Amino acid sequence: MKTKNFFLLILSCFIILLFACKQTPKKGGVIISFDDNYIDEWFEFREVFNQYQIKATFFIAHSYLLDTDDIQKLKILEKEGHEIGCHGYCHLNCMDYVDSIDKYVENEIIPAVHLLKKHGFQLHSFAYPFGTSTDLIDSVLLTHFSYIRKATYNINDTTIDTYDDIFVSDNTTRVSNAMGMDYNYNISFENLETALKRAANNNEILILYAHQINNSKKDYSIEPAYLEKVFQLCNKYGLQSIRMKDIGSFTFK
Ligand SMILES: [Zn+2]
Question: 191: CA distance to ligand 1 center in Å?
Fold first, then answer.
């Protein structure tokens, strides 16, 4: 009888444990984005994106320069679950148009949206070239896009978990900042890890951005080995990789 009770106790514990494991969802998310037109390098890295189940958001500038090969590669990336976003038509700085927002929209936004849509891309998100904007420009652009990304870098030379505006904590957020992780921003893995840990602990979405993926160690490039390590850390902390357009549907509980 005692043996039977013991067996039942072990079985109950096992079932409870199994249930608990099944009920523990992934907490926190990460948005990994890339700006400009480094399509060949992004495309070349897609095996690694797939290996770590990273879904990136690629913000395209100068869409009038896209050739057939570029468009085909972007279509494949989109088909594989990545998002194609808009990064302006001529990569203009919106801060030069604070007194002529209509002109900015007419020259920089409308033609970019038109051309990217003409190429068949579903547009939801925009990233500002040079990273900054005003509330008024944000509000105007939100009539063209659902999500807007700004950009910063480690201007305070501190641990990057202290930048509240690179974290999203609710589904209503439409405008957010992002932390640059290119080589010239010199963010150590330990520092990057502080932000990934915060996202996991607080169930927030961390937003990161980079540009080229290569070993040149030039400004606005990220080394493939560094980027892969970032992906590994995202996986280590169980962060769900999402695209900009997924902010509204992300599960925060
Ligand atoms: Zn740019």
Answer: 24
